[in-house]
Every structure is written in C-alpha cells, then in structure tokens.
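Entry type: protein chain
Record version: 2
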Amino acid sequence: MAPKTVVIIGGSFGGLKVARGLLKDVPVAAPRILAKPKAFSKNQYLIPIKDGFTSYGENFKLIVGTATEIDETNRAITILRSDTDDRFTLEYDYLVIASGSSTASATDGALAPFKRFGSSDLSEQISNIQKSIASAKSIIIGGAGPIGIELVGELTEARRTEAIITLVSATKQLLPMLKKSSGDTAEKILKRRGVRIIKGSKVTNAVNQGFSWEVTLSDGQILNADLYISAVGVTPNNSFIPKEFLDKNGWVEVDEQFHVTGSKNKNIYAIGDITALPTRTVMKIDERFPILVDNLKADILKSASKRPTYVTSAEIEKSKAMMFVPIGAGAGTGQMMGMTPWSWVVKMIKGKDFFVPKAASLAGLA
C-alpha cells in the first residue's frame, strides 16, 4: 500500500490524540496557573508538541501556522506559516479538522486568557495575565460556567480579602449545564467567601479605560473594576472551513463515525470543540477519538469490518454528565452519576492540582 498523507488541523487535545492513535497503529489550562503563579512550574503546562512525537521520525511533521482554506476538490489546504508569513499548499489523502474554539470575547479587547490567540509567546501572555491579577484590587469575572467558577474560586484563595470579586452570570443558575443542586453548592461556597454574584444578566460590553474597566450588563447596570476577565463561552475556529461543513451556529457537523457530513467525500473527519456535538470537554475527547481513529484506519486500510459508531444527544449528555468543578484547593462541586459529589471528593480528584501534572499524558504527548 502506498503511503497516505493524513493532515490534522489543530494541535490541542483532539488533534494530538488522533495523531498518536494513527501513528501507533498504522504503518491544561487551569485557572490556578493564572491566579497562583507559583502553584506549578512552566514545564508542567507549556508542553512542546514536537517532543512527544520524536520516536515516529519522518512519519510525523509539525507545521506551526494557520490554515486559511480547504480545497476539497483538489484535496489540499492552504497554510500561513507563523515563522515566515509565507503561504503554501499542503495536499492530503485524509483530513482531520480539530481546530477547536476561541473565547467568545477574544477579539473585542477583553482579557480572555482561556483560548486566547494573537501572541506566539504563550509564556509571556500567561505572565502578563498573572501580573494583572496580582495587582488588581477589584475584579469582575464574566461567565458562570466551569471556567468562571473555578477561576473565582482560585481568586478568593489567592487574593483573600485583598480584592473585591464580582461574578456575572447570564443564567439564574450557576453551572447551568449541571443539576441545580450543583449550581446551588457553588453559589453557597462563593457567597461564604464574600463574592458578589449577579445572576440573570450578561456582559454586553467591556471597555478597557487604561487603568480600569467599565463593564455594561444587559439589565443596564454599569460596573467598574481594575480588571475584567471574560470566561463567557466560545466561538468556533472555522474561518477556513467551507460553509457547507457547518451548522447554523458555525460548528462542523459530523456523522456517527466522525465523517464531516457536508463533505462530498468520506475522507474528511472532525473532532473536539469544533464539532457540533454537545459537551466540549477534554474528557469527552478520550471517549470519542478512538472511534474516529478506528474509522480512519479502516478507510486507509480499505477494511470491510464493522465500523464503530458514536451516538449521542444533548439530553443523553446532560443525563450522564461527569464534571468536577474545584472552587479553590479545598472545596468544589460538580456532577457524578447524576448526583452532586461531596466537596472533599472534588478536592481529592481534581482540586489538588487541576490535572496539570497529567497534562502531557491527557494530550497524548507522554
């Protein structure tokens, strides 16, 4: 069989897991890093991708750049290199789209450290955010999902009584993707720590005025603080993806074998945050990537064996959701087997280190 070229767009958990899965078988990002700079060493969370694939020699090639176009007819993608700003075309036999998502406010000037692009020096970017947090006397966090809750929890421990912290939630329940009891637990813990919580109103505008931020809410309130951090949702990284691949919200639609349904051929796959599948978490990657890899291997090898499938829905995902949300190192909430876990369980499983020491293995790099 002639060698096949598999191009994977995206170097985060989904793309890396697929790459390693194929190479084996075919011939974090934690709020604590920002709030508590000394909690982890940089080599625990800034992990070189190339080092994890050295054993595969010429079978693996890492290109640092931005995909700008997919030419399905000619089976090629256009790439803008990060180091030279040169554009070139890369042909593929099979394509895996794992381009992920970006913080929804990453382009409007807000401080959005979780999936923010624009700087090639991630270490410098993190360091600047750490300094901003350390010097702020008042902080507003927009978003009451897991990241927002975890960040506020870390801030209440790191800054204690030194900073006034406000959490803005667009929904009446914190952690709206989980059971009400999970959100209620988070709210009780944060209120005990003196956090001001505004529910049922979302951030509509945030303006950096130099030494302070002016944050406007949907109910007309105007808040002021030394620092505003956005933890509000994500948008798909889809600027290079043909429109026929996308649903109405811009996410890539896939079938039960992770083929892109809008593609004319069966040689384009997608996985991770970029897909329209519900529940975009790292843990879901472990559940889904083996199915994609097995189907892609079967395509490459022209296997006639039965293909594995992945069937889900928003209702199924919510009913079996498993999520641990630390609120600082000593408390937390979440959902496990349909129940809200005890705070000490969250502390023991995730709260002590946010899985940061396991980041390389979670990404398939160790």
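Comment: The first helix runs from residue 13 to 25.
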